[in-house]
Specification:
2 domains; eight-stranded mixed beta sheet; Immunoglobulin-like; about 475 residues; about 20% helix; Purple Acid Phosphatase, chain A, domain 2
């Protein structure tokens, strides 16, 4: 009990220090409205053709039985309030929340939208005249336009204080990057996916971020039960017979890039964390995307093969049928450009790794970006794996197990000790650094010629604005 109180005090102080920095100015096109507590956990997702469709999920009391979605085309930089009397209208469906019998979950889908267009939107119950705050979403472009997305992972807060801290990471990420087209989160949104309060703490405390972008979620193991993942994100699973109890896998195209989002909560004798059906789908999905002209391919996965903390030696990662031995070689042979991982709560990135699980050393070029050097791998023979640590309080130490050793770590460009360790150990778990001190996020920009990744860190103890800790990229000539 004493240890738990100490941790709570530490996290509480860190939250106060972090929030003192403030988060303003993000998403210049975003609504200035405050969230309506009667319509909460509003999230937009891609549900098919990212140029013309958009899915929405939100939660209300049981009294709101109607699921109404309205969109109005945004006219450039005009600050004029949208006129929803002329809105595109769509009806959705609702069901009692799997986690909370006192809440109703709603889903709706907008179709027939114009590509590369911003829309104001609101969701709610038209009959009762109860609406969410007005948000802004954007559809994908048709051509090879450059685009930027935010990448965060593992908010995983187990208390309301920690939820506020994780939510503030999203606010600071949005305030730092300002202009981005969507946001990816590679799993473990909460500590326990079936505890609905934890979803409230994260999304409601950063609703102005979540409500003004499109979220690309990958299922984490902490929301791998009881439909906890799919009930919060309106997605179309890749195959009709997918069991969405544990999550969902799916893909979409955005500009010149194909995104494949995996569900590492499945299992089979042949593949740990995956079924043969999902692996076959992934293989065909990426091959088809390349045949259709995708310039770049990006994979999002929670339990990744190349991370550097305690999960790096888990049986489902390093075992004979684990992710590193079974999934990584396929990814390399398919020519995937970038894999963004989660699960291991420490920052790391690899050299390009080929289909034989061997690191390669391509030619590199260096540019001066953001006042620092950014190194690009040129036409690499292999896939770069990265993990943006964590957006939440829980951090891990570097894995020094002999099972890994020099042969493993020689595949990494960045594999240092967790930066939170300089502030000491977690009083409740001395095997880990103190909770809440350090968070990370990444900005990823893709254009015709290159992928550019900028990795930021937030130091809650120092109380400074997010700063850059790494920059890297890929160039194709």
């Amino acid at each position: 009990m004493v240890r738990r109180k100490v941790v709570s005090i530490v996290v509480g102080l860190i939250v106060l220090l972090g929030l003192a920095i403030g988060s303003s100015g993000f998403l210049s096109s975003a609504s200035a409205e405050s969230p309506n507590p009667a319509v909460k956990k509003v999230v937009a997702t891609f549900t098919g053709d990212a140029r013309t469709t958009k899915g929405f999920t939100w939660y209300t009391s049981l009294a709101s039985t109607q699921s109404d979605l309205q969109l109005v085309k945004k006219n450039g930089k005009s600050k004029k309030k949208p006129n929803f009397k002329k809105a595109l209208t769509f009806k959705g469906t609702s069901a009692i929340s799997s986690n909370d019998s006192e809440e109703r979950m709603h889903k709706a889908e907008a179709k027939g939208l114009r590509s590369n267009t911003e829309y104001y939107y609101r969701v709610g119950d038209a009959k009762r005249k109860i609406w969410s705050m007005v948000g802004v979403i954007k559809t994908a472009p048709k051509k090879n336009d450059a685009f930027t997305f935010l990448e965060l992972t593992d908010p995983q807060a187990k208390t309301e204080e920690e939820g506020q801290l994780a939510a503030d990471t999203f606010k600071q990420a949005a305030a730092t990057v300002k202009h981005f087209d969507f946001m990816t989160v590679t799993g473990d949104f909460v500590d326990n996916g079936v505890v609905e309060d934890q979803w409230d703490w994260l999304i409601n405390n950063s609703q102005k971020v979540w409500g003004n972008t499109t979220v690309v979620p990958a299922a984490g193991n902490h929301e791998g039960k009881n439909r906890a993942f799919i009930d919060h994100f309106n997605l179309k699973p890749a195959t009709s017979n997918t069991d969405t109890t544990t999550g969902a896998y799916y893909s979409f195209d955005y500009s010149n890039t194909h995104f494949t989002v995996l569900n590492s909560n499945e299992d089979s004798e042949q593949y740990r964390d995956f079924t043969p059906e999902q692996v076959n789908w992934m293989t065909n999905d990426i091959k088809k995307a390349k045949a259709n002209g995708a310039k770049w391919t990006v994979v999002l996965i929670h339990k990744g093969p190349y991370t550097t903390s305690n999960h790096a030696t888990d049986a489902d990662i390093i075992g004979e049928n684990g992710v590193r031995n079974k999934i990584a070689p396929l990814i390399g042979k398919l020519g995937v450009d970038l894999v963004i991982q989660g699960h291991d709560h420490i920052y790391a990135r690899t050299l390009p790794i080929n289909g034989d699980n061997q690191a390669t050393h391509p030619k590199t070029i260096t540019e001066w970006v953001n006042g620092q050097q950014m190194t690009y791998s040129v036409n690499p023979d292999g896939t770069i794996y990265s993990i943006p640590a964590t957006a939440g309080p829980k951090v891990y130490k570097k894995n020094t197990s002999p099972e890994l050793g020099e042969a493993f770590y020689s595949k990494f460009v960045r594999a240092e000790e967790n930066h939170a360790l300089k502030y000491g150990l977690d009083p409740s778990d001395p095997s880990r650094p103190v909770r809440g001190a350090i968070q990370n996020f990444s900005k990823v920009t893709i254009d015709k010629k290159k992928i550019s990744v900028v990795v930021y860190e937030i130091d809650r103890i120092k109380g400074t604005a997010p700063y850059i800790i790494d920059q890297f990229g890929v160039v194709k000539k």
